[in-house]
Structures are given as structure tokens and as C-alpha cells.
Amino acid sequence: MNKKFKIRCSQIGQIMSNAKTKGDLSAGCKTYLENWYANDNEEIHSKYFDKGNMVENECIDLMASVLDKGMAFKNDEHKEDEYFTGTCDVQLDDCIVDVKSVWGRKGLHAACDGLDKDYEWQLRGYLHLYNKSKAILFYGLCDTPEECNYGNEVIYSDMPIEKRWVAYNIDADAELLQAIIDKVIMCREYLEEYDLKINNKLGKIN
Fewest beta carbons within 10 Å, which of 76, 132, 143, 188? Predict the structure, then answer.
């Protein structure tokens, strides 16, 4: 293969799901890898994604205020190494932060159920790339711009500020990091075999 597989931090959860057979890759992981190989990555659009993008800076400001982080800004420093690639949302002196702007109260309340495993895996990748020992997953509830809600602006900034956020700490863990690296190596082995299979079939009568 010409392109060596590296896992995007935001996609680590796709490969870390458990397989039925020990030492194998899960069906979901294999599907993800085959889509990666085919470069079939359709762009997803929805009002939820649109709001997240439009209020990201506002959510960062909310995070910095309630967590007493001073001035915080959107990070634009991309990182990658032999196994990982990604860009965290906010890089601070003592930690990295990933901010999630939820659509409404229900989404924020759902985030209170506990730490989302996929987001945890994502942040573990960022912890490694940015050489930090601590990460924070922050959910914030910001006003909904008219542009992504059919002309209806929805206001949440008049709520008590403690009702508008929830956050989770994630500490670096060398054992879990190694588990991701081991899985990336397994993914590369699978892709090598998949590449051979595809190229032995394409352009031929089989």
C-alpha cells in the first residue's frame, strides 16, 4: 500500500470496539477500515453540526469562564506521529480541552449519563500527540443561531450558568495508549491483506 494507515484521534473509537474473537478486529472496525481504504468519506451536514461549528468560540469562552482558565482560544496546531493524527480544540498549559456544543437541554442532560467512550478515546489520542497528562471533555449549552434553526433563535444564556455545562476529566494512561497503538498495528496488517485481495480481483475475470 502507498498510504500508511494512521488513526485520526476523532475516529479511535471506531477501531477500539471489541471483537467477538480475541485478537481479531470487530466488524465495525473492519467496515471503517474498508471505507478508509476506498476513501469513501461523505461529508455530514445537519443543524446539530452547524450549530456546533457556529458557536464553537462561544462555547470555548464559556468553558474558560466556568473552569477559570483565563483566556482560551481555538487551537489550530495540527499534530501527527507514526500512529496518530489530529487537532485538539483547545490547548492550555496544564491540559487540553475538547468542547462539545449541545443542541439543547436534553442533549446536555444526556451528557450527564457519564463519560462518552468514543470521546474518551479521542482525547487519549490528543493527550499523546500534545504531550499532556490531563484532558477535559466539556459540554456547553449556548444560544442557537437563527441560521441553523430555520430562522428561530433559541436563547439559553439567560439560564443560571451552572445549568449550562458539564465536564469530565481524563488522565493519561500508558496502558490504554499502548492498546490503541497495538490496534493501529493490527489495522495496518488487515489493510495489507485487504489491499492484496482487492488488487488480485480488480481488472480481471474472476
Answer: 76
0.70 exceeded by the pTM?
yes
Query: Would you state the cell numbers that stand for residue 79, as one nine-digit string?
Result: 499534530
Is 21 contained in some domain?
no
Which H or E element spans position 136? Answer: strand 134-141
As for how many domains the chain has, the answer is: 1
- 102-127 per-position pLDDT tens digit: 999 999 999 999 999 999 999 999 99
Query: What CA–CA distance (Å, rounded) separates 71 from 2?
Result: 43
In a domain, 86, yes or no: yes
- Burial (CB count within 10 angstroms: exposed 0-12, middle 13-18, buried 19+), residue 199: exposed
SS3 annotation, 54-92: HCHHHHHHHHHHHCCCCCCCCCCCCEECCCEEECCCEEC
Residue 24 located in a structural domain: no
What is the CATH classification number for the domain harbouring 125? 3.90.320.10
Domain that residue 113 falls in: 45-182
